[in-house]
Amino acid sequence: MHVELEQRALLTAAATADTLARDISGGAARTAAASPVSLPSLSPMAAKARWLSEQVPMLEQLAALALMLDTDADGQVAIDLPGDTWDPAVLLEQSADQRFGPGFVDATGLGGEELTTLLLTLGSVGQDLPDSSAVMTPDQLRTFVIDHPQVARALQQTRPAGSGPGAVLYGLTLPFMTAPGGGAEVWEQRRLEARELFEGLSPDDAAILAMTYPSIVGNLPGVPFANRADANTVNVVVALDDEQAELADLRERHEHNQHDWDFLGMNNDDLEGPIEDAEDRVALYRSILADDRQIVYFDPSGDGSIAELHAPIDPRTQNVGVLVPGTGSDLSNFQGTADRSLTFQDNAPPGSLAMISWMGGDLPDDIVQDAPFANYSVDLGPRLADFSRDLALEIEHSAAPDAQVTVAGHSYGGAVVGRSELSGLVADRVLHIESAGMGHDIEGPGDLPDSQGDVDRYSMTAPGDVIGLIQGTQAGDNIGHGADPDSFDGTVRLHTGNKVDGSLNTGVGSHTSVFQEHSDAWQNMFEVFTGGTVETYRSPDYYYPPPGPYGSPSMPVQVGWEDDGERIDIE
């Protein structure tokens, strides 16, 4: 049997049949309602409407089959089948598995019209198709995936094949021979090719392509941030489904522990911490999906990796800020970092500042056992530098090419930012906030590459923050974080000042209280992010109490500030 299929004609026929069926049914109903007597002659009209309506799913199924088999994307296919009969549904499933990967259809858990609609939508990218209710918009696909986690899981397993945009995407994932300029040259070329691929599609096609191959697109360098967020919506749906299952298991085990043979209750509280972490992750994922948050990097494995763009980069954007958190940061408490970023963005003129919260990999868990070691920052620094190149490309291709970029690191995040400079971080300004250091093996400007020569650097450390005890210390290949950012040559040290209530922002608690909204320290951060006016460092003024009994020394007490800082306009 020889069969020829043309998806555009089939979809047009389906839409026409559906419209005609509705018109006939509606007309018959209106005529019957208006007639004072019974009209038996209308019965055949209703039957014709039903028959037309019943043909619509078949026509749409054939259109989906044509799309799955259209390997050269010319809008039509011809197939030769053995025998005189065939089952389009079976052939559709086989062709979909060939297009998206073995077992794809079974993994979706779909059948009938739902499967047809999904395949029509995924296959529509790069095709000139007529308007059809059977093809979902990106927003409809997003909602469908959120409501069907098994579909999101199936999409995570897809691999591009065939021709068209999928084939180009596949090419970006292939191994390569090193170019004359080295591997970096190839990666940069691929970054540009990824951008060109998605920008060459219509906005709807680009979004659907991203959601069709989320495991590839979600973190792929060069992909526009909006499309990375499209892909990561799918990835977050799967992460939420997995985390909810993990949470249910933890709660069940926790309940079991309350009634097991351990009559002393030694294990009663063992799982409370993991349960709280799982609950926080579930809350984060639900918030991301409910609020359509723009996740431009995501990996839920281990402690997790994530980057969130909190506002679009568009013609209003004058500044972009990146905030890198420190020790103890993971997905369960990422919301705290996001909230800090939002305080800066929300206080700037609408649209002028776009903040990004970046936690691109594993950070130290413990201050004593992990934070002294540099391996975390050595690993994360190049990742942050690579992300900065994606950000630069995003800005270049936006309508705000002159936006200024500030990359700020808090605590251990400062060491990450410092190490990213070794890998050529693209930024106009760098801000160290209660920072662990300039980065392992960075002792002076001469240790940085020439690309960092025009970067303006700022730093702040509150008096009494214990991190000051380790700044500037380093030993061996993996202990310590390079030079003290406050005294690094060319760095402007900033005033940390007072809290909102006028009390001194000093001591152990100042390590985090510098982020108190509208405090002096927060205001200086805000001015760096927005290119405003900063206040430089003011020396603390101490009162030295008289010696105690038997001549024992007394601890000095800070009572204020003994000098005035200088006000400097950043721009």
Give the topology, please.
Blueprint: E1 2-6, H1 7-34, H2 43-69, E2 76-80, H3 88-100, H4 104-108, H5 112-123, H6 138-147, H7 149-156, H8 165-171, H9 183-199, H10 203-212, H11 214-217, H12 225-257, H13 272-290, E3 294-299, E4 305-309, E5 319-324, H14 334-347, E6 353-359, H15 375-396, E7 404-410, H16 412-422, E8 429-433, E9 456-460, E10 474-475, E11 479-480, E12 492-493, H17 510-513, H18 520-530, E13 533-535, E14 540-543, E15 557-561, E16 567-569
Parallel strand pairs: 5-6, 5-7, 7-8, 8-9, 9-12
Antiparallel strand pairs: 1-2, 3-4, 4-6, 10-11, 13-16, 14-15
Helix pairs in contact: 1-2, 2-3, 2-5, 7-12, 10-12, 12-13, 15-16
Task: Give short descriptive properties of this protein.
571 residues, alpha/beta, Rossmann fold, eight-stranded mixed β-sheet, 45% helix
**Count of structural domains:** 3
Sheet with the most strands, sense and barrel status:
8 strands, mixed
CATH architecture designation of the largest domain = 3-Layer(aba) Sandwich
Q: Note the beta-strand portion.
A: 5-15%
Number of strands: 16
Unreliable stretches (pLDDT < 50, length at least 5) are: none
Average predicted local confidence, pLDDT: 92
